[in-house]
Amino acid sequence: MAKPVEVTEQSFDQAVLQSQEPVLVDFWAPWCAPCRHLAPIVEELAGEYDGKVTFTKLNVDEASSIAAKYGIMSIPTVMVFKGGQAVKQIVGLRPKRDFQGALNEVLS
Amino acid sequence: MDSEYDLIVVGAGPTGMTSAMFAGRSNLKTLLIERMVPGGQIATTSTVENYPGFTDGIEGPDLSEAMLEHAKKWGAVTTFNEVTGIRVEGDYRVVETPDGDLRAKALIITSGADHRRLGVPGEMEFMGKGVSNCAVCDGAFFADSPVAVIGGGDGAIDEGLYLTRYASKVTVVHRRNELRASKILAERALANPVMDFAWNSVVQSINGDKVVESVTLKDTASGAISELPVEGVFIYVGLVPNTDYLKGMVDLDSGGHILVNPRMETKISGVFAAGDIRQKAARQLVSAAGDGATAAVSVRNYIKALAG
């Protein structure tokens, strides 16, 4: 199953903003143990949307300027980018269906 | 994924994970279905200090990951989906999901409880912009900032103490004039120099422009209104059982908790309920796990009796 790619401050522009296909970014931090619980859901989604959406994760400690730019004050937060714009934001541990709904809207 | 099982467990909190582990060890083909993420309440709890055997405590998320692994080790299959209803079809107990029906000989309902909302202006608008139900997720974003914790029970005080690692000041806003939390936690909180207390106070609104800047408090005795400047608001005002999808199928008490017999069986044979979703005197992690074991043993006996 597809594993989300870790993006950094250096790779964010190219990997997320310049991407041809929509990109899901999972904002997390090593100290946020609950964030780990989202991983199995994100991995399932990565399998379901393989070839349609790029799955990434971003460590808010290491890429703090990006987290600040998008006003991240709660993690896990999942954002979906399309054409360089943040088009969806889902805060917290949410049902898988919420993520599928956001991705389906972005793809439609 | 198959659509037919011996047992379907609805909810992967500590009760459900324990049920699934016991059922797996009884060679029951078991599906554990979870709406959100595994772990239930302990997925977002900082340190669990009262689970027997862990003398120095254990982080809630670490324990929940271990419980899930334990259930999987004995064959339980997990899936992430929402249960929208249950029904009886002859010998089958059917679980309804948006992706179709799943069938089993028996069900254990362990869908637990969610955080109660305050229901005040600003609460939903600022969710993720200063309002949180998860101190271990978001505490680090409030380094050297003042925060408020709403509530006076174990959850509020435990997570409030965790927040003192980061925040410049943690004000506990409580509607009574003494804490309901267990004595050990209350004493620790009252002695903590970073903690402050707004007694006899209720939140009227959570205010800010783009992010939280303050909460408006009302003194329940005098009626006086005051403004408390904070950047974070952590809400722990109790729990509401997740029984909406069971609509009329099982008996509930006035608080919405399911009534079961000592075998954890509801009024529908083959449908069991355990953990925080059922009416009970103690809502602790160890009793939740114990409920899960009792329900799984009952299911084993029920299925054995079905086979004749």
What can you see in these coordinates?
- The complex is a heterodimer of chains A (108) and B (308).
- Chain A has helices at 12-17, 33-36, 39-48, 64-69, 96-107, and strands spanning 5-7, 23-28, 54-59, 77-82, 85-91.
- By secondary structure, chain A is α/β, with parallel strands linked by helices.
- Chain A is built from five helices and five strands, in the order βαβααβαββα.
- In chain A, strands 1-3-2-4-5 form a five-stranded mixed sheet.
- By secondary structure, chain B is α/β, with parallel strands linked by helices.
- Chain B has helices at 14-25, 60-73, 135-138, 154-163, 183-191, 285-307; strands at 4-10, 30-34, 47-48, 58-59, 77-80, 85-89, 92-97, 100-109, 113-115, 131-132, 146-150, 169-173, 195-198, 201-208, 212-219, 225-229, 232-235, 239-241, 271-273.
- The radius of gyration of chain B is 21 Å and the shape is elongated.
- Chain B starts with a strand and ends with a helix.
- The mean pLDDT of chain B is 96.
- Chains A and B meet through helix 2 and helix 3 of A and helix 2 and helix 3 of B.
Structural class of chain B: alpha/beta
Number of helices of chain A: 5
- Rg of Cα set of chain B: 21 Å
How are strands sequenced across the largest beta sheet of chain A? Answer: 1-3-2-4-5
Radius of gyration of chain A: 12 Å
CA distance, first residue to last residue of chain A: 24 Å
Q: What is the tally of beta strands of chain B?
A: 19
Helix coverage percent of chain A: 25-40%
Shape label of chain B: elongated
Helix content of chain B: 10-25%
Which H/E pattern describes the elements of chain A? EHEHHEHEEH
Mean pLDDT metric of chain A:
94
- Regions with little confidence, pLDDT below 50 for 5+ residues of chain A: none
What's the overall average pLDDT of chain B, rounded?
96
Number of distinct helices of chain B? 6
Shape assignment of chain A: globular
The N- and C-terminal alpha carbons of chain B lie at a distance of 29 Å
Q: Characterize the main sheet of chain A.
A: 5 strands, mixed
State the low-pLDDT regions of chain B, or none: none
